[in-house]
Design a protein that fits this description.
Blueprint: E1 16-21, H1 22-33, E2 41-45, H2 47-51, H3 55-65, E3 69-72, H4 75-84, E4 90-92, H5 101-106, E5 109-113, H6 116-129, E6 133-138, H7 153-161, E7 166-172, H8 181-201, E8 214-216, H9 220-225, E9 233-236, E10 256-261, E11 264-268, E12 273-274, E13 280-281, E14 286-291, E15 308-311, E16 314-319, E17 327-330, E18 342-349, E19 352-354, H10 356-363, H11 367-373, E20 380-383
Parallel strand pairs: 1-20, 2-3, 2-9, 3-4, 4-5, 5-6, 6-7, 7-8
Antiparallel strand pairs: 1-10, 10-18, 11-14, 12-13, 14-17, 15-16, 15-18, 16-17, 18-19
């Protein structure tokens, strides 16, 4: 077993944990690669600590399986990865604060720029360090979040060319509705129109014209559904983690499981209520088991009295209000249950499986928001398909 941070289930200080199956990361990456031409590069997006899965472990597995680039959201995330991986190209997908640009240049991190100010501060830092800075120009093709306007692209590229220490590495944009064809096509058309102007003004710049500057747009959904968006590279996040939309969920596997061990069992008489505000009342004799995991660990309080767990392969209902550090289950239907037995909150046990999407549907949110919450307190155990013995 490959164990993250030298932790094992028998040595952690809490009887609750997240399991990350790195073999599934590798399998998902290989599936995604099968959608792409050999010449199309793949960026594994590992921001937010790998969507709560552990950035360093996920990045190593993704690169081993065929990812050529890594993507992050912040400077700190990029610096952490660079310590673990001295050679794989890493792109910070949003603009870096001026005070942090020099650290990015020293660590050979790719910098996203969207305007003349970004260029000026990056050039100043590069000149001070007497180092080249890797520039990635992001343009807005319709999402209207961050990015240069299309009519500024050639001006910005021209400006990059006047600075000897700036190296343009890519031109890219971001899809707003990757699982929907029409708006995705509109964004792709906007990007291609901009690139045509770039090719006209700088004929040997782009990879498509024999140059070195890549273009990229596609996410995981677009990589499968819309091959016209592939360009020189695709960027995959949720698809790699098996947190994909319904359009690709049939071909990738969820990577994360969440489990806890029973630390208290008590018998409840008919009419007795349990937990904060006494929101669950026994209709008949009941047996209640507690596990040490709660909303401070990422299990949303809105799931109270709605979610289920799996114990000895059987589905069991969660009971009562989820607390900060504890939650309760009605284990009456599993008479053999004892202290120390494992309840699965996310993942599979026997013939039953609970998906993070089940929680997301109940909470009217998205799976990757919930996955990111799991990074706060729960120990993370990395496996390669093994069953952890507890």
């Amino acid at each position: 077993m490959l164990v993250s941070s030298q932790l094992t289930v028998s040595s952690i200080s809490r009887d609750a944990w997240v399991e990350i199956d790195l073999a599934k990361i590798e399998s998902n990456i290989k599936t995604i690669r099968s959608w792409l031409a050999d010449s199309t590069a793949l960026m594994a997006v590992v921001k937010a600590d790998g969507y709560g899965h552990g950035a360093v472990d996920v990045a190593r597995s993704a690169v081993a399986a065929g990812a050529e680039w890594l993507g992050v959201a912040t400077v700190d995330e990029g610096l952490e990865l660079r310590k673990a991986d001295p050679s794989t190209p890493i792109l910070i997908l949003g603009p870096a604060p001026e005070r942090a640009v020099k650290y990015c240049i020293e660590a050979d991190l790719g910098l996203t720029v969207t305007n003349i100010f970004d260029l000026a501060q990056t050039d100043a830092a590069a000149n001070q360090l007497k180092r080249n800075a890797q520039i990635h120009l992001k343009i807005d093709t319709g999402m209207h979040r961050i990015g240069a306007s299309i009519d500024q692209v050639t001006q910005l590229i021209d400006s990059i060319g006047t600075h000897k220490n700036l190296r343009l590495m890519s031109v890219f944009s971001h899809l707003a509705k990757a699982d929907e064809h029409d708006f995705t096509k509109k964004q792709d058309d906007a990007l291609r129109g901009s690139l045509e102007k770039v090719a006209k003004n700088f004929p040997s710049l782009l990879v498509s014209n024999g140059g070195s500057v890549m273009t990229h747009l596609a996410s995981g959904d677009a990589a499968r559904l819309h091959p016209f968006t592939h360009h020189d590279m695709v960027r995959v996040g949720l698809t790699m983690y098996g947190l994909a939309s319904r359009t690709v969920s049939d071909v990738v596997s969820p990577v994360m499981s969440v489990r806890g061990r029973i630390n208290q069992i008590r018998d409840i008489a008919p009419g007795e209520s349990i937990g904060y505000n006494l929101t669950w009342t026994a209709d008949s004799d009941a047996r209640i088991g507690s596990i040490p995991i709660g909303y401070a660990d990422g299990v949303d309080r809105g799931l109270s009295n709605r979610m289920q767990g799996i114990l000895h392969g059987k589905m069991i209902p969660q009971a009562g209000t989820i607390s900060m550090d504890q939650m309760l289950f009605d284990i009456t239907s599993v008479p053999e249950a004892k202290l120390g037995d494992t309840i699965t909150l996310i993942g599979n046990d026997g013939d039953n499986t609970i998906h993070l999407a089940d929680w997301a549907n109940m909470l009217d949110t998205i799976t990757y928001e919930l996955a990111c919450r799991m990074r706060v307190r729960l120990p993370r155990i990395c496996t390669r398909g093994e069953t952890i013995q507890v």
